[in-house]
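Quick start: what a row looks like.
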Amino acid sequence: MAGIFERVELIDGDQLAERVPMLDAIRGLQELLRSGFDPADALPRQLLDVAHGQLLLMPAAAGGWAGQKFATVAPGNPARGLERIQGIYILLDGETLAPTAILDGTELTSIRTPAVSAAVLDLLAEPDATELVVFGTGPQGIRHAEAMAAIRPSLARVTLVGRDPAKAEHAAAAVRAMGLDARVGSPDDVRRADIVVAATTAREPLFDERLVGDHVVIAAVGSHEPGARELPGGLIGRSQVVVETDAVARAEAGDVIMAVGEGRIAFEQLAPMRDIVAGTVPVDRSRPRVVKTCGMGWQDLCVAALAVAPSARER
């Protein structure tokens, strides 16, 4: 066993962030989706309930690599000063299946989730978008501000909305440290948004859909449960809705599942993100565009593989 560990590279969170800048992660995901890889063929993940949260087992194989993320979701952790989502990632050579690297899965998730949102919103958002409103003041809210700025340098202001004013101000300070103009706001700020991100643990809609203009794009990433939603059904019904795959949307995307149950939209009207990124489904700029993601193993694998590329090691 000692021999195996001698051959495995250990990549901590700081190293991963340095090796895979956000824009590189975004472009890598876009390249994979344009390469012929189809997320509909991806290996399924498992969500297992345990006493204080969930275990997530997320295998993947693509692009000459294989891998497995072992992640946990512990809702009580933020009150303990710990991350709600934690994990490790094992990257394998795609041919020999030999372990190649073990990566900080928490940082990997912090990069890949906003990178996936941005990879699609890059095609959906107006080229001159200036106003970003982010619901959620945890790590995902902050990193989504970073990702949106990477694809839209035109952003002039970021407004963060959260339930805890002190936490919201802390998040705004973190975004300002990135060189962005950031402030704390309210749900009503959606009325002047160009881009909206929902990265919360909410189970009910966060804002009034009547505030959303037809030019607006929205990313909803906070939930992977069929009974939880961040977006109102009326917004889903009047939008072009992009999902990872039809199967994931039907099983996990509560925002979509509940809107279908209300008769607002049909599953057949959803657009897989691969088709948007590859250009086989046109973007409908006459109405809002929504990206609803739940998280898939191929996304982690793509970013993990970027971390061991020769160019990344040289950084």
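That is the whole record. Residues 225 and 258 are 11 Å apart (CA to CA). The longest helix spans residues 105-124.
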